[in-house]
Amino acid sequence: MSLLNILRAPLAAALVVIATLATTTTVPAPAFAQASAPAATATTAAPAPAAAEPVVTKEEVMNPYGLEALWRQGDFVAKGTLIIMVIMSIGTWYIIFTKLMEQRKLMRAANAVGEAFWKAGSMKQAATTLEEGSAFRYIAEQGVKADAHHEGTLVEAIDRHTWISMSVERAVGSINSRLQDGLAFLATVGSTAPFVGLFGTVWGIYHALTAIGIAGQASIDKVAGPVGEALIMTAIGLAVAVPAVMGYNWLIRRNKTAMERIRAFSGDVHNVLLAGKR
User: Fold this and answer.
1) Could you give the 3-state DSSP secondary structure of residue 263?
2) Which of 32, 75, 241, 248 could link 193 by a cystine bridge, Cβ 3.0 to 4.6 Å?
3) Nearest partner of 147 among 135, 161, 136, 134, judged by Cα
């Protein structure tokens, strides 16, 4: 028996097995392809577009009871009252800032009176060491001027001590009067601004009562405007009065401190001049 005959039977059996396996593996293939097709389609499908967010717009509502409405709807009395209080407020802040700057300059001049002034050979030379136009230089120059013009004039009948003292005191009084400038306005604003605002309040309430009488009923739309006007006037009156009162008290206290240093300096100048140091 040849080798070919021996292997023929196993080869034939192997071919039959291979053919059988090929048939069983290829038959489900269409089913698998059909089953996998939807999955592939699902995975490759484009995502749905996201829904657009709605745009929210804020509607600006005009306040019918504010300052703009007060000025637009108010009569000449309300507008005049408001203008008066605005002028009071502007004047108050202007005086506060200018007086603070003036007091700061005065205290700086007081600190400048140092050893150079008191070590000078005469009061006339000492006055030149001070800042031009300062209150302390003004006092020293007035004292020197009074001492120089005492002899040979009509004031010779007045003793030298009294004459120099009077001249120095007049200089101090002039400086004090200048420091007090504007404070009367602050006191006036502080005491009258609440009543000016109260007048605007009474006028607004009068308009509210008039609107109720004309309409015949007390509805909120008829009363809100005039009552709002009245409350705004009250608030403005207080806002004007409070800074004026506080500024007045503050400036008075600072003026007192400055005048203490000025009077102490004027006393020293007076004594130096009486000692003959012209």
Assistant:
1) helix
2) 241
3) 161
CB 82 within 8 A of CB 71: yes
List Cα–Cα distances, 263 to 28, 64, 168, 247, 256, in angstroms: 120, 58, 9, 24, 11
Q: H helices within the chain, ranges in order?
A: 3-26, 29-44, 67-73, 76-112, 115-118, 123-127, 135-148, 160-179, 183-215, 220-274
Q: How many residues does the chain have?
A: 278
Cα–Cα dist 234/201, whole Å: 6
Collect the ranges in the chain with pLDDT lower than 70: 1-74, 150-157, 217-219, 221-225, 276-278
Please state the domain extents for the chain.
3-36, 67-274
d(CA 234, CA 125): 58
Residues 6 or more apart whose CB falls under 8 angstroms from that of 95 comprise 182, 183, 185, 186, 247
Place of tokens 């108010």: 74
pTM above 0.85, yes or no: no
